[in-house]
Structures are given as C-alpha cells and as structure tokens.
Specification:
287 residues; alpha+beta; Type Iii Antifreeze Protein Isoform Hplc 12; six-stranded antiparallel sheet; two-stranded antiparallel sheet; 21% helix
C-alpha cells in the first residue's frame, strides 16, 4: 500500500479518536452534573384555579423543582394540608402552590376568605362599561367618585344654577372581585347587574353605603404603584361651560315710607283782654 495513503488513514484514525474522546467526556460530565443537582417534588396546580375555589385532590399535582425552593412552597408529602383551603388569587396549571396564596385552614373559600383581618368587602353597582371593559379586575386600584346635588340645597338658587357636583370620595381602593349579581327592579323583576367588590375599612364601608343610596358612584382606574392620596377639589357642572358665568343673585329690599305726622288743629283761648292760640293733634285731624 502506498505510504501516502497509510499516512492519511493514520491521521484520520487519530482525529476520529480525539473527537470520540472529547464527546465521551462531555457526555460523562453532563450526566455527572445532572446527578449532582437535587430535585424536590412540590405541590402544584393541576389545572387553572380561580380565586375563592376550595381545593380538592383533583386540583393538585406534583412537579419537580431543582435547586432552591420558592419561599412558602408546599412539599408533596404535605399535600393533605392543602386540601380544603381556599385560593386567595388565581393559580395556573403547573404553577407551584405557595402557602401565602391560600386561605388559613378552616376559613373556607369564596370571597370572604380573601378579606384581610380588620377589613371589609363592600359591593358597588357599576355600569356595563366598567364591569365588562375588564379594568375593574381583582388587585386593581381605583378612586371612588360621587356625583349629585348635596342634600339641603335643592331650594337654593345658587346651588341650582351650579348644577350637579362631583367629588372624590375615596382614593387608592383595592378591587377584590368583579362580576354579576341578581337584583330586582322597581317592578320586582330579577335582572343581572355589574357589581364590583371593594376592600375598605369599616368606616369607609359606611361612607360607600351612604353614597350608593344618595348619589351616583363612578370608579376611575389608577396606577397600582401610585399610592399617594391627593387633595382633589370638587367640580360643578357649570364649570364645564367656559362661556357661562355663574349668575350673581341680588336681593332687593322693599322701601318703606316714613309715617306721616298726624294733622293738627288749633284753639284760641281768651283770658280777659288777652288771647292765646293752643295747637293740638288728633289721629283724624278733626277739629
């Protein structure tokens, strides 16, 4: 055989052997690294789970997590401690379940389980635009506006000229839930209405209840990171029209004529050869 051919074959074997050696070491090192990384099985959602749902075994599964576990993750062996607890926020399929996102043991499910200690949930009826548009979703922050005519001012001319007044009642209020509720109209017929549940303090709940019965309520969306409470001045309907100035009401007082002096009459008095005149006044002025 030609020496040149032998040299080429020898070089080919050497290169092939070197490549095989490198590939072997890469595979072995990767297998070794895989074996050294520990995994832990934790409880996860078997399907999408909505807020307020009480968990059962069909809602749960287990997934492998390598490395450090998320804070509050529940191990598979503690799966029994999860069943029967309510969900405080939406969970998605395959997502590890965190203890902080579940209601305390024994508190059940539904909206009540999502209310923190010392707070209240108050329902506010809204129009279809707010309810269906999707901005009033759980976790969002809103301001509560009220519009109407203040009580006790309906008979005042100046107040009637200003029209409807709008003021900011509450600021930076968290939305707990949004959906439909069944209410009856004036004829007693049931019909669905859009309702938003707000997370408020007991004092704020009283204010919202008064406002919902006496005025019209409007919710406005705000940035969840903007927690500042601003001093907002109210607005009057007449302020929308720049060309119209609020009328100035002048009170005209009626002039009262001064009373006339009663008419007078005189009597001539004779005393000897002297005479004098005495003047007297009477209501009728008759002599």
């Amino acid at each position: 055989m030609n020496r040149r051919v032998l040299t080429i074959l020898l070089l080919a074997f050497v290169i092939a052997g070197g490549c095989a050696f490198v590939v072997y070491h890469l595979v072995v090192s990767r297998m070794t690294a895989t074996k050294t990384v520990a995994t832990t099985r934790v409880v996860a959602a078997a399907t999408d789970i909505k807020l307020g749902v009480v968990l059962n075994s069909a809602d749960l599964t287990a997934v492998e997590i390598s490395g450090a576990l998320p804070k509050g993750a529940i191990l598979e062996k503690d799966k029994g401690n999860v069943i029967g607890r309510g969900v405080l926020s939406d969970l998605y399929q395959g997502e590890p379940i965190i203890d902080a996102r579940l209601a305390p043991v024994g508190s059940g499910g539904g909206l009540a389980a999502t209310i923190p200690q010392g707070m209240r949930a108050v329902a506010v009826r809204v129009d279809d635009i707010i309810g269906v548009s999707g901005f009033a979703t759980p976790g969002m922050r809103v301001d509560v506006l009220i519009s109407g005519i203040p009580p006790g001012t309906q008979g005042q001319t100046i107040q009637n000229e200003q029209g409807t007044l709008v003021e900011t009642l509450l600021q930076n209020i968290q939305v707990l839930s949004a959906g439909q509720d069944i209410q009856k109209d004036a004829e007693g017929k049931a019909h669905p209405v859009q309702v938003v549940n707000l997370l408020v303090t007991p004092e704020q709940a009283q204010v919202v209840d008064l406002a919902s019965n006496q005025t019209k309520i409007q919710l406005v969306l705000r940035n969840p990171l903007d927690t500042k409470t601003d001093e907002v001045a109210g607005a009057a309907q007449i302020s929308l029209f720049k060309s119209v100035k609020a009328p100035i009401v002048k009170v005209q007082h009626a002039k009262v004529a001064a009373p006339k002096a009663p008419p007078a009459f005189s009597i001539e008095v004779l005393n000897g050869n002297k005479s004098s005149e005495e003047k007297f006044s009477t209501p009728g002025g008759q002599q």
